[in-house]
Amino acid sequence: MIRGLYSLLMSGAQPLLRRKLRRRGREEPGYLEAVEERFGRYRVRAEPGALWIHAVSLGETRAAGILVDALRRLDPSLRLLVTHGTATGRAEGQALLREGDTQAWLPWDTPEAVARFLDHFRPRVGVLMETEVWPNLALACAERGLPLALANARLSDKSLRQAQRLAWLSRPAYASLAAVWAQSEADAQRLREAGARVSGVLGNLKFDAEPDAQRLAQGRAWRAATGAPVVMFASSREGEEREFLRVLRAQLDMARSGRGRRNTDRLLAERPVQWLIVPRHPQRFEEVAGIARAHGFSVSCRSQWTDEGPAAAEVWVGDTLGDMALYYGLADVALLGGSFAPLGGQNLIEAAACGCPVVMGPHTFNFAEAATAAEGQGAALRANSIEDALRHALVLVADEAGRRCMVEQAGQFAQAHRGAALRCAQALLALGPPDG
């Protein structure tokens, strides 16, 4: 009865989904690609027996890439079906594909679309990355005897409360999963409370990511040639850049006027700093550059730089994909995007792996355990606001010995938590029948 009502609502919402895709497609053309796949109508070839990985967006797809590398080391003949929900996830996922692999959109969660998806592709085992569990999809897989796992699984307190409010729908979905491999003990406990049968705590796949060595070295070389410390706002989210630039403009004006009395004003007056903003979402690159100009800053965008390095400007904007290692190499310290608004924070593990100290805001519930561990080990600092974070960053760039200590701790923190990818790959290959 309850599932039938949910299915009816999802079916009725399909026109709204089409409208949303058209609207998003005006900014991100990737959303207009193969739209009918969203409704379970596929033209791509489908050979049964692939291992199916669903990675909804960019972060999950990067985590999936780490898992795929481990899977291919264990089984070089592996064939993949990779599905996504966002345009950035799908674009990133293309790099995971080899000959014989397939990429598609995951369908909207109606019984009919899910059935067409499963009938068309007939995977031997499926794995959902991190968080996304759709009721009709999960239950349909269980009814067909298709093992469906949740890997690198995490569940925040906020998401648990939401799941509990919809327990009549979410609890059967979680319970139907063949395996759940949690990132941490705290995640495992929350997942159990949501109804999942947790099979193990395997750690966070993202610790096994290897930064692009060439880009990292390029960023460090450019930093050495810059002549001023570089403070980066990494993976910033909507609303955060405007507040950051507002605070920065006010403090710079105060420092230059000689009227500043705060420690931040003094530090800004004593030492020039290069500012770098790297927005989380590519469709906002131009918007963020425009916000910086509106606050009176000169702007240089990464896409316009030559091999010689960044062009002179008060604010640099990282407007390219796949360059995070370069940006972290370029930065002396990074403010963590998504953590200064109640959005849960972005991934700080990549910064640690690149040896970049991090200043986090108060909202890190998406990476709660990693954030707490990084802070405890001295690889990250906690700030109450963007103004507080700027103060921390300026103190760090003025304290070379303290910053070097944080760089060392960041590397040790990243190294100490590796190994989840191999553990997860082994568990996943053991879950389903052999291909063929």
Q: Which terms summarize this structure?
A:
seven-stranded parallel β-sheet, 14% strand, 436 residues, Rossmann fold, 2 domains, alpha/beta, 49% helix
Topology of this protein?
Elements: H1 2-12, H2 14-27, E1 51-54, H3 58-74, E2 80-84, H4 87-93, E3 102-105, H5 111-121, E4 125-129, H6 135-144, E5 148-153, H7 157-165, H8 167-175, E6 179-182, H9 185-194, E7 200-201, H10 213-226, E8 230-236, H11 240-257, H12 263-270, E9 274-279, H13 285-294, E10 299-301, E11 315-317, H14 324-330, E12 333-336, H15 349-353, E13 358-360, H16 368-377, E14 380-382, H17 386-398, H18 400-416, H19 420-431
Parallel strand pairs: 1-2, 1-4, 2-3, 4-5, 5-6, 6-7, 8-9, 8-12, 9-11, 10-11, 12-13, 13-14
Task: Describe the fold and architecture.
The protein has 436 residues and is of the alpha/beta class. It folds into two domains: 2-203 and 419-431, 3-Deoxy-D-manno-octulosonic-acid transferase, N-terminal domain (Rossmann fold); 213-416, Glycogen Phosphorylase B (Rossmann fold, 3-Layer(aba) Sandwich). The protein is built from 19 helices and 14 strands. The two termini are 38 Å apart. 45% of the residues are buried. The mean pLDDT is 93. One of its GO terms (molecular function) is Kdo transferase activity. This is 3-deoxy-D-manno-octulosonic acid transferase. It catalyses: lipid IVA (E. coli) + CMP-3-deoxy-beta-D-manno-octulosonate = alpha-Kdo-(2->6)-lipid IVA (E. coli) + CMP + H(+).
Biggest β-sheet, characterized?
7 strands, parallel
Number of strands: 14
Portion of residues in beta strands equals 5-15%
User: Can you tell me the CATH architecture of the largest domain?
Assistant: 3-Layer(aba) Sandwich
What is the C-alpha radius of gyration, as a whole number of Å? 23 Å
Average of pLDDT? 93
Q: Based on CA inertia axes, which overall geometry fits? A: globular
Number of domains: 2
CA(first)-CA(last) distance: 38 Å
What would CATH call the class of the largest domain? Alpha Beta
Considering the protein shown, what is the CATH homologous superfamily of the largest domain?
Answer: 3-Deoxy-D-manno-octulosonic-acid transferase, N-terminal domain
Number of separate helices: 19
Give the % helix: 40-55%
Weakly predicted, low-confidence segments = none
Secondary structure class reads alpha/beta
Q: What is the CATH fold-level name of the largest domain?
A: Rossmann fold
Q: Taking strands numbered 1, 2, ... along the chain, how are they ordered across the largest sheet? A: 3-2-1-4-5-6-7
